[in-house]
Structure formats: C-alpha cells, structure tokens
Write a structure and sequence with these properties.
- By secondary structure, this protein is mainly alpha-helical.
- 77% of the residues lie in helices and 5% in strands.
- The longest helix has 83 residues.
- The chain is rod-shaped and about 125 Å long.
Length: 261
C-alpha cells in the first residue's frame, strides 16, 4: 500500500469527492427523518411531564381526603365531649362549675363549626382538582395517541434507513482514514459552513456547483488538470472537474446499492 505522502492530488480529489458523496447520502437519509426524532422526544417529555402532574394531583387529592377524615374524627370527638359535658352539667353543685362546663360545650361547638367549614373548603378543592385531573387525563390520552403515531412513523423510517445509515457512516470513517488529516479537517470545516453540507463540488456550466459565479477558463483548466486542490473564491468549496465527478458518482452508486441491501 502506498504511503499517504505518495498519493497524487488526483487521488486526493477523488477520495474527497467520494467522502462528500457518502456524507451527502447520509444527509439525505437524515432529511427523510426530518424533525421526527425531535418531535418524538418533545412528545415523550410532554407525556412524562403530564404523568408527573397527574401523580402530584392524585397525591394532593389523597392528602385532602385524609384531612377531611381527620376533621370528621375531630367533629365526632367534639360531639362526644359535648355529650359528656352536658351530662356533667346535670350533676353540678354550683353555678361556677355549670358555667365552666358551658364554656367547654361552647368551645367544642365552635370546633365543630370550624371543622365543618374546613371540610366544605376541602370538598371544593377536591372538586376543582378532580376537574383538572379529568382534563389532564383527556389531554394525556390525546398526546399519548399522537406520540404512538409519531413513534410508529419514526420506527418505520428507521427500519428502512438505519442499517444503510450505519453502513455509510462506517464507509465515511474508512474513507477519512485514506485522506490526510489536514484535508479532512478542511473538508469538515467547509462542510459545516456551507449550504447543504456540500464541501466538494464539480464545476457545472462554468461555475461552482450550486453557485452562479463563473469560474475563469484558466482556473477551469487547472481544475481539469488535477494537479492541485483548488477552492472556489466565493464559497470556499473544493472544486473538481465534471469528468472526475461523473466517474466517482458511478463508482459510489455501486457502493450505495451494496450498503442499502
């Protein structure tokens, strides 16, 4: 195997364009998925949030029910004490004892009134929270159904494309290893800064692929000579001649057919 230092400029250009074709194919696959993975993630987060809210509301209801139970027990205790104090009043020997028991009865009656007021407030809270729970359950069912539909769409697309994408990513890594690091870094930098991720493009109708700026004939000749790596002065993209591009496209088509099986 030849050392990297012995690889010709033409070999480098072919390797770079091949890498571009592979990465562009991966981009196409990911574009098919579009925003679906993000939509699914957002829906999953929303459903999780609603389940957490439902759990909190349910816990709140249980806590309020427990408070009502406590108030009802307090009322029963107060009634029992009132009965006890009333019975004791029949046996008192003086007005002071009678008045003291009367105050105790009055106090327990106030306790009952206060407890009944709290129970009424708690029941209003239960009614309000129950309405929110029902509304949340309906909304949750709708979002879960939507999530199921979107997840199904995503699973279907993944089943069709994931194997091919993984195979192409491995090919991309393999091709990167055959190109000197300096060029790979330049390629990645250009790719991240240009539209559609196209860092290596052929000359088309006298202009850089996807551009309207004409390339001077002298520069076109230099590109066709494949003796040095030339970049478009307007976009910064690496340029290859149409013939080389066509040859590599035909070659890579065979690779794409192989990995998509």
């Amino acid at each position: 195997m030849a050392k990297k230092t012995e690889i010709t400029v033409e070999d480098k250009l072919r390797a770079l364009f091949d890498l571009q074709l592979i990465d562009s194919r991966v981009d196409e696959i990911r574009n098919v998925r579009g925003e679906l993975p993000l939509e699914v993630q957002d829906l999953e987060d929303e459903v999780a949030g609603m389940n957490t809210r439902l759990e909190k509301l349910t816990n709140d209801l249980e806590s309020i029910e427990e408070s009502i139970k406590e108030k009802k027990n307090l009322i029963e205790e107060a009634k029992s004490l009132i009965k006890k104090y009333t019975t004791q009043q029949d046996k008192v020997r003086n007005n002071r004892e009678y008045n003291s028991l009367s105050k105790e009865v009055e106090y327990q009656e106030l306790e009952i009134q206060l407890a009944e007021k709290h129970i009424k407030e708690f029941k209003a809270q239960i009614e309000q929270k129950s309405a929110v729970i029902e509304e949340t359950k309906e909304r949750l069912a709708e979002r879960e159904n939507h999530l199921k539909h979107k997840q199904g769409e995503l699973d279907e697309i993944l089943a069709e494309t994931e194997k091919e994408e993984q195979a192409l990513l491995k090919e991309s890594e393999k091709y990167e290893k055959n190109i000197e690091e300096r060029l790979v870094n330049a390629y990645k930098r250009i790719r991240s800064n240009v539209k559609n991720g196209l860092a290596v493009v052929p000359v088309e109708r006298g202009a850089s692929g996807g551009s309207f700026f004409t390339i001077p004939p002298q520069v076109q000749m230099e590109i066709a000579a494949r003796k040095k790596i030339i970049t478009d002065e307007h976009s910064g993209r690496i340029l290859v001649d149409p013939a080389l591009a066509e040859e590599e496209r035909e070659k890579m088509e065979q690779l794409f057919k192989k990995v998509s099986k």
